[in-house]
Amino acid sequence: MRKLTLVFLLLSAPVVANDENCDETPSGQSALAPVIRVAQMATANRCPNAPDASRLRHICMSISERVRDPQPLAPHYNFEYERKILEASCVNIPGDSEAVQNQKIQRMWQQLESTLICNSTSFGVNNGGLIKFAISSLFDDLIENVAIWRVNLNKVDASDNMTPLDYLKARIDNSQGTENARFRSYFTRLRNAGAKYRSEL
Q1: Angle at Cα 76 formed by Cα 43 and Cα 65, nearest 5°?
Q2: % of the chain surpassing 70 pLDDT
């Protein structure tokens, strides 16, 4: 009877897995290492080092219609145009620091600036730069972002021969009331961030 009881206890005893045997391969590497490497390679393939112009499609519409991002990449990025710029710049959130994010955006902006143009009957500047389009659209958020990102604020468009600051001065001189106040606030923000008149370049 005692022998039968001992056999029963041995058979019914719980099996405890050895963590070392489960977590590591015989070579001592994590068993998840191949999976992690595949994920890292997939991420690299989705975001090459070079800026990706394809991510900027329809950015002017995103700006003019102030399209919200249904799944923001970060709490302070709420608009679709921001996602387009971040993805075109290959920014890694939350991996990249703010300084690295800005550097990547600056590099993208420098290389793809000729494509960052908009056309609209309400805009009035043929192939006008993105910053001027934001000014025309009274889009406070984008004005603040370009000042923070420290991108080129002094692009001269061939169609009007003006920098964004020249364009702002003209809008200030031909507006009044609330609109005029908004233009003046943009002027101050961009000027403090390094914006210049064409005559100063």
Answers
A1: 95
A2: 75
